[in-house]
């Protein structure tokens, strides 16, 4: 399914460096966050524990705490500097916890989470099987997974501009909605629903877009990228190609956003293994008394 791989250490380093500048450039992220929060209307219970995975600077976590004031709300992020910035959004009367951890290795017990929320984080994880298996593990049966992630048309103009300059990889790639949906089902998550929206942001110049990407920490993190500095001539060719895409005097940049939700599986729900078989798990207690004598 996945023909490319991300450099996890680089992803972590990019976002750590962007912690202080992230909120200067996160207009799209705020818009997507508001849209994602609407999906929480499907959850009709009062959650005891809510995770915000890939919480970044904690804006979304604070909104979750406001929505669920009686719940234990926890911001989880791979970049510790992001969580340090997030402290300013943790109100005295409605504080949330902060935990530095990977989305594929959440430090929480099985079936201990009512709502797992993640806004524009999962595109930085290339092992979807590990990711969604972990989501299924920590979610309570009937718990809600709700997330957004970038799709493959994201930054297609920048990718095309670089392609006209050389044949190297300069822009991170993202997975198709159908691959994400297949991975959700394979992990045993129930009744997934996915939608796609496209946003077009415009800039005064290509360099302003590049500045924004750096400020967000959303820079190239594929392992296939060139390890040496890009030559000035290649860079100028890319800029010239992008300049040719101006519309009404502005530089366009497309962001394809996949928004989805699914439900925690019931006990014993089977899931696909990497070799194509199916695995079902049961607690020891649930098996007691079932043996025939």
UniProtKB/TrEMBL annotation:
It catalyses: malonyl-[ACP] + S-adenosyl-L-methionine = malonyl-[ACP] methyl ester + S-adenosyl-L-homocysteine. Keywords: Biotin biosynthesis, Methyltransferase, S-adenosyl-L-methionine, Transferase. Residues 262-293 are annotated as: Disordered. GO terms for biological process: methylation. Pfam families: Methyltransf_11. One of its GO terms (molecular function) is malonyl-CoA methyltransferase activity. NCBIfam families: BioC. This is Malonyl-[acyl-carrier protein] O-methyltransferase. It comes from Dyella ginsengisoli. The gene is bioC.
């Amino acid at each position: 399914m996945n023909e490319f791989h991300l450099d996890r250490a680089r992803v972590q380093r990019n976002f750590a460096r962007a912690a202080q500048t992230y909120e200067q450039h996160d207009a799209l992220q705020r818009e997507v966050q508001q849209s994602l929060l609407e999906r929480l209307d499907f959850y009709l219970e009062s959650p005891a524990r809510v995770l915000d995975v890939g919480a970044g600077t904690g804006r979304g976590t604070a909104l979750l705490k406001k929505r669920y004031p009686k719940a234990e709300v926890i911001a989880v992020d791979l970049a510790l500097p992001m969580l340090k910035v997030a402290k300013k959004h943790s109100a005295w009367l409605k504080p949330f916890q902060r935990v530095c951890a990977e989305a594929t290795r959440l430090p929480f017990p099985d079936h201990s989470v009512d709502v797992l929320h993640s806004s524009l984080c999962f595109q930085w994880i290339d092992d979807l099987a590990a990711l969604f298996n972990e989501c299924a593990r920590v979610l309570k049966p009937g718990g809600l997974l709700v997330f957004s992630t970038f799709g493959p048309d994201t930054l297609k103009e920048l990718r095309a501009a670089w392609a006209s300059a050389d044949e190297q990889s300069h822009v991170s790639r993202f997975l198709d909605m159908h691959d994400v949906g297949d991975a959700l089902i394979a992990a045993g998550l129930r009744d997934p629903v996915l939608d796609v929206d496209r946003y077009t942001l415009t800039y005064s110049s290509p360099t302003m877009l590049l500045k924004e990407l750096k400020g967000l920490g959303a820079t190239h993190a594929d392992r296939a990228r060139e390890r040496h500095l890009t030559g000035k001539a290649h860079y100028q060719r890319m800029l010239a190609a992008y300049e040719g895409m101006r519309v009404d005097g502005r530089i366009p940049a497309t962001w394809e956003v996949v928004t989805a939700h699914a439900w925690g599986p019931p006990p014993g729900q089977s899931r696909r293994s990497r070799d194509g078989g199916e695995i079902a798990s049961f607690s020891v207690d649930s098996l007691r008394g079932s043996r025939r004598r």
